[in-house]
Write a structure and sequence with these properties.
213 residues, alpha+beta, 5-stranded mixed β-sheet, 5 helices, 29% helix, globular
C-alpha cells in the first residue's frame, strides 16, 4: 500500500501549468469548474500523484487513458484489481494506491469546530463517545474513518452516515490505518488489515522522499 502526500506550499500559480504538462491522461479532468487557481492546483496535483503511483505499480502509460468513473464519481481502472483514492485539506493533498480493491483515504486539517452541529451524521455509539470526551481529536478521527470508508466502498454521501459505526470493524467489514501527519488527521480504509504503509512526500525538487508508517 502506497501513500503520497504533497504540500501546495511547494507550488506557485505558475507550477499549475507545469503539473498539467506532466500529466499523462486527461480522463480524470475535474468535473467542476474552479474559480481559484489553488482549487484547480489541488485537483491537478491529486491526479498527478495518482498517475505516479499507478506507473510505479506497473500500469502502462497507455492504460491510464482507460481510467473512468463509477456512478458516484470515483475513478477506477477497468479490469484491474488496483484501487486508488485522493483527498485534500488545507495545504495538503494525499493519494493512496492499493494492489487490492477496495481502498479509500480521507485527510482533514485539524481545526476548531462546533461538534454539536454534526450530530446527524454520527452513529449513537460514536456520538456518545464524542459527548463524553468533547474532543475535536476524536471528531476528526471518526470523520476521516467514516469518509474513507465511503470512498473505499465507492459510494457517495447517499449512505445514511448515522448507521455506520467506524469503531465496529466486524460490522463495517473494513479496516482502518492512521497516517501520522502534524496538524492533520488522516485515515486509510481497506478490505484487509494493514501492518505498514509506504508513505512518500512529493517534492518539486526531490520528487519522492520515502518512509514507512
Amino acid at each position: 500500500m502506497q501513500v503520497i502526500i504533497a504540500s501546495l506550499t511547494d507550488f506557485t500559480e505558475h507550477s499549475l501549468l507545469s503539473v498539467q504538462a506532466r500529466r499523462k491522461t486527461k480522463v480524470l479532468t475535474s468535473r467542476h469548474r474552479h474559480i481559484f487557481w489553488k482549487d484547480k492546483l489541488r485537483t491537478e496535483v491529486g491526479i498527478l500523484l495518482t498517475e505516479i503511483m499507478l506507473l510505479n505499480m506497473g500500469i502502462h502509460e497507455n492504460e491510464l487513458n482507460t481510467l473512468t468513473r463509477n456512478t458516484y464519481g470515483k475513478p477506477f481502472l477497468p479490469g484491474a484489481t488496483i484501487d486508488f483514492n485522493i483527498s485534500h485539506s488545507g495545504d495538503l493533498v494525499a493519494a493512496v494506491c492499493s494492489p487490492f480493491k477496495h481502498v479509500g483515504i480521507d485527510l482533514e486539517q485539524n481545526r476548531t469546530i462546533d461538534i454539536s452541529a454534526y450530530e446527524s451524521i454520527f452513529h449513537p455509539n460514536e456520538w456518545f463517545l464524542l459527548n463524553s470526551t468533547n474532543s475535536e481529536r476524536i471528531f476528526f478521527e471518526i470523520w476521516t474513518k467514516k469518509e474513507s470508508l465511503l470512498k473505499a466502498k465507492g459510494l457517495g454521501f447517499q449512505t445514511d452516515l448515522m448507521k455506520i459505526n467506524v469503531f465496529d470493524e466486524a460490522e463495517t467489514q473494513y479496516h482502518f490505518h492512521s497516517i501520522p501527519i502534524p496538524d492533520y488527521t488522516c485515515h486509510i480504509c481497506s478490505t484487509f488489515p494493514l501492518q505498514e504503509v509506504e508513505l512518500s512526500y512529493f517534492s518539486t525538487e526531490h520528487e519522492l522522499l520515502y518512509e514507512t508508517v
